Amino acid sequence: DVKVTQSSRYLVKRTGEKVFLECVQDMDHENMFWYRQDPGLGLRLIYFSYDVKMKEKGDIPEGYSVSREKKERFSLILESASTNQTSMYLCASSFPGTSNEQYFGPGTRLTVT
Amino acid sequence: DQQVKQNSPSLSVQEGRISILNCDYTNSMFDYFLWYKKYPAEGPTFLISISSIKDKNEDGRFTVFLNKSAKHLSLHIVPSQPGDSAVYFCAATLNQFYFGTGTSLTVIP
């Protein structure tokens, strides 16, 4: 069974804080993704990674950065959190190829006050 | 610019009847289409997919139809069950996944 875990289910941070969201998968997937989900906007891709130390910008990378030092771990970093980054953050992983389904973690509900 | 759209934010259906969820897309180059289901406080889970070279794919109670000329995708659930109540996202792939905005399905017992 594929498992994607995220470090926190709920997180509350203050404006200007540096925030780390961690994601770990146990299926040896090459691809990993970070999305945010907002009402009426669906899932929007922030960053993705096809391999260790590789990263690609998604549709909304502004205000975020990522790190992938090991194959199983993909971190999302908010350098200076802002209130408009309050959202549900979802991590996913998959094998290469767009026909392969993505497996999602349970999500982190981040509130920036 | 939303390349994948789900124009119905919500849908209510009686248990045992058919649920039809719709999805429209703009890019004719998309090669795969997928449906995901999401319960509250959980991540989305894969439901069913279809290649752009096909027009129908069936898996138990779930059937996905693809109309390429209309750039339209639909998911049929027959018969609908209360456990199907969830948010459904369609997605299309090219070099990355593009997700729709989701449709919240409520199946009334």
Report what the structure shows:
The complex is a heterodimer of chains A (113) and B (109). Chain A is built from no helices and eleven strands. Chain A is globular and about 35 Å long. Chain A has strands at 4-6, 10-13, 19-25, 31-38, 42-49, 56-57, 64-70, 73-78, 87-94, 103-104, 108-112. Helix content of chain A is 0%, strand content 53%. Chain A is an all-beta fold and 113 residues long. In chain A, the strands form two sheets. In chain A, strands 2, 4, 5, 6, 9, 10 and 11 form a seven-stranded mixed beta sheet that branches. Chain B has 109 residues and is mainly β. Helix content of chain B is 0%, strand content 56%. Chain B contains no helices and eleven strands. Chain B has strands at 4-5, 10-14, 19-25, 32-38, 45-51, 56-59, 62-67, 72-77, 86-93, 97-99, 103-108. In chain B, strands 2, 4, 5, 9, 10 and 11 form a six-stranded mixed beta sheet that branches. Chain B has a five-stranded antiparallel beta sheet with strand order 1-3-8-7-6, with no helix packed on it. The radius of gyration of chain B is 13 Å and the shape is globular. The interface between A and B is medium-sized, with 23 and 28 residues.
Summary keywords:
heterodimer; A: 113 residues; mainly beta; seven-stranded mixed β-sheet; 0% helix; B: 109 residues; six-stranded mixed β-sheet; five-stranded antiparallel β-sheet; 11 strands; globular
Fold blueprint:
The complex is a heterodimer of chains A (113) and B (109).
Chain A: E1 4-6, E2 10-13, E3 19-25, E4 31-38, E5 42-49, E6 56-57, E7 64-70, E8 73-78, E9 87-94, E10 103-104, E11 108-112
Parallel strand pairs in A: 2-11
Antiparallel strand pairs in A: 1-3, 3-8, 4-5, 4-9, 5-6, 7-8, 9-10, 9-11
Chain B: E1 4-5, E2 10-14, E3 19-25, E4 32-38, E5 45-51, E6 56-59, E7 62-67, E8 72-77, E9 86-93, E10 97-99, E11 103-108
Parallel strand pairs in B: 2-11
Antiparallel strand pairs in B: 1-3, 3-8, 4-5, 4-9, 6-7, 7-8, 9-10, 9-11
